[in-house]
Input
Amino acid sequence: MKFLINSIVLIFFLVAHSLSFSQSNIPIPDSINSFVFSKGANNQIKLITPFGNHFLKDSAFIYEKFKSLDFSKQINDIGRPLNNNEYRSVVLNEKLHLFHNGGGVVFEEFEGSFRRVDNSTLHLNQASGFYFEIDNRLHLYGGYGLWTHKEYITFYDPTVKQWDINYHNSNYVPTARWKAIGDYADDKLYVLGGRTGDSNVALDIDFDLDDVFLYDFESGMFKNLGKVNPFLIKTYSNFALPKYESSIVLTTPEKITMIDFANNEVVENIILGEFLSHNSRFPCFIVDNSLYYISGFDKFSVKSYDLTNLNSGEIQKNIYPLVDNSAESNPFKVVLIGFVSLLFFWIIMKLFVFQDHIKDLILYDKSGIYYRKRFVSMSAAEIKFIQLLSSEPFVSASMLNEILSDKEYSKSHLTELRDKFILKLKAKIESLTGEKDGIYETKHKDDKRIKSYKANSAFKKKTSFIIHLFKIK
Output
C-alpha cells in the first residue's frame, strides 16, 4: 500500500513538472518565418510579422491579422526584412514603436497595425547602439556605422519627426563603442563595456571594453566611474537589457546576473544550464515576475523563467561591486600599495645587481671558497692567504711565510712550504673554476729580488643578500 501511494505521488509530481515545463516553453508556429520578438504597451508578449501580430495568451500564440497591407508595403519599401537583427522595439507614450537598428526609420503602433512616422532616412549610422527612453523620446547611445564607432547620443524628436544629436559640455568623452550595456535612471545614463575596434579593419576582430561611466543629462557631463569588476565576464549585449526592480538582467548559459548601477552592485545567481538554449539574437522581456526569451537555434520557442525563484535559499549567489574602487577611496591603502610596489621594485633591482655582482667573483668565508653555486673547503691558512689577496695588490713571499709558520726555518724549507701550499691551492681553485693558474708567482714590481703572489680572478668576501639589499653603495 505504501509503495502504491509513493508511486502515485511520484507520477503526480512528474506530470505536474511536465505541465509546468510545457507552460514555460511555447513553440513558435512554423508558419512564422520572419518576426520581431517584442513586448507591447499592455505588457503582452508578441511576435510582430509584416501581416499581423501573434499574441502570447494562455501558453499559446493567438494570431491577429492586420486589416491592411500598408505595413508590409512600407517594410518592403525600406528594403530591410522585419526581424530582430534589423529592428528594435520600445514603448513610447503608451504605444509600441519599432525603429531600425541602424537608425532613422521609426514605426508607431496604429489601429492594430504599424505606420511609419519619421521624416528621416535609413542612415545605418548607429547599428547596435544602446537604446533607451526619456520623457517618451527614443534615445540612442553609440553604435556603429559608416566604418566608425560612435561616441555620441542622438534622440528622435516626434514634434519634427527627425533625429537630432544630444550636445554635451564634457571634456571627457568615453571611447566610442557599440553593443554597450546600459541603464537610464534618475536623469543619468549608466554604461558599461560594449565593444570597439580599429575602424580600418573588419568588425569581427573588435574587442571588449571594461570601463563604466555615466552621462548626467542635467549637467551635460560624462563621468568616468572606473573599471568593471573582472568577475563580470560578459560586458556587451546586442539589445537593451530588461529591468527588474532596480537592476538590469543579463542572462548567460549558467547565470542570471543582476546589475545595479546606482548601488554599484552585481548579484550573480547560479542556475546551471537554464539558459543554454537562449538565442542571444533576440531580446529578453520581463512581464510581472517572469523573464521571457527565445530558445533554440533551428526551431524557436518562447521560454519563461520565474524570477521569484531567485529568492530561494537554494540558489547560489555571488555578490560583488560593479566597480571596485576600494583602493582609490582609501588614501592609506594607496600609499601602502605604492610603498610595497616600490619595495618590491627595489628588491628585484638589487637582486639583479647582486647576481651580476657575484657572477664572475670567487667568494670566500671562514669555511671555504664559492663560485657559481659550487663550493670547496679551505684551511685557515688558505682563507687567510685569500683574504690578503682580496685586499692587497699582491702577497709577498715573506707575508706568506708568516701565514704558513711562526717558526724560524731555513730559506729552502720555507720555499718548499710555499710551493706545496700554492700548488695545493691552485688545484682547489682549478677544481672550482676550471682556471689552471688561479694563483701564480711573480716578482715584486719595485724590487725584482722579492717573490710575490697574485690571483687571476678577483676574490670577494661572501655577504648575504639582505646586507647587500640595504647597502647604498
Confidence is low (pLDDT under 50) at residues 1-23. Residues 331-359 form the longest helix (29 residues).
